[in-house]
Amino acid sequence: MNNRRFSLPTPVRIAGAGATALGIVALSAGAASAHVTVTPSTTAAGSYTVLTFSVGHGCEGSPTTKIAIQMPEAIPSVTPTLNQGWAVRKVSEKLAKPIEDAHGNKITERVSQVVYTARTPLADGFRDTFELSVQVPDAEGDTVTFPVIQTCQKGQTSWIETPAEGQDEEELESPAPAFTITAASGEGHHGGATDDDAGESDEHEAADADADGDDDGDGNGNGLAVGGLVAGIGGLALGGLALARSGKKA
């Protein structure tokens, strides 16, 4: 009996290798997506943005009980969004030197962190989001980092690592959520009208004023016409009365 070693056909071996590679990629993608992340509604310098922080798992299987988001010094104030399943509080600290906000008001303290505490622990394998409204620093090209401490029923994870120069963030085990500030938008700091918009608005107002003036002219013309008609009717009435009187005398 001829004993030959059985080997898989080449296409089968290739398919197996491809499946293994896909598995590795899927695991890598899962690990990356498991990070605590931040997604800003806009990254334009000086604009107001809503930062959405996402938490997708617990601490090695343990449910999450608290999320503490550290605020950078470049962002002195923040407005947290209420989350039904969490209690939220702002932790403030005194500033060594007062600063001015976008409206020229002096600020003597800043919000150093926002803490969300779960009313019911967030089970591992379930995600939740937390929204903060802030003003993006007027510093195009800078990276704004938000270290996050995730506390669980057992243990905690510190999402505080930042990449070194030239290092890929995906190489970090627990990267801090961050984003890079982009150029200011044409709508200005508060989404207000630009100079071009203001010019167009002035033109529209001038056109409206002209239209109002035309309406007033038409109204005056109509008034004169009505007055003339009334005067004509009155003249006819007087003429008829005089004619009647002259007929009686005759």
Key words describing this protein structure:
single chain; transmembrane; 32% helix; membrane; 5-stranded antiparallel sheet; alpha+beta; YncI copper-binding domain-containing protein; disordered C terminus; 4-stranded antiparallel sheet; 11 strands; transmembrane helix; 2 helices
Task: Provide a compact summary of the structure.
With 250 residues, the chain is of the alpha+beta class. The chain is built from 2 helices and 11 strands.
Describe the protein in words.
By secondary structure, the chain is α+β, with helices and mostly antiparallel strands. The chain has a domain at 34-180: Immunoglobulin-like. The chain is built from 2 helices and 11 strands, in the order αβββββββββββα. Strands 5-6-3-9-10 form a 5-stranded antiparallel β-sheet, with no helix packed on it. Strands 1-2-7-4 form a 4-stranded antiparallel β-sheet, with no helix packed on it. It has a two-stranded antiparallel ribbon with strand order 8-11. A hairpin with a 7-residue loop joins β1 and β2. The chain is globular and about 45 Å long. The N and C termini lie far apart (158 Å).
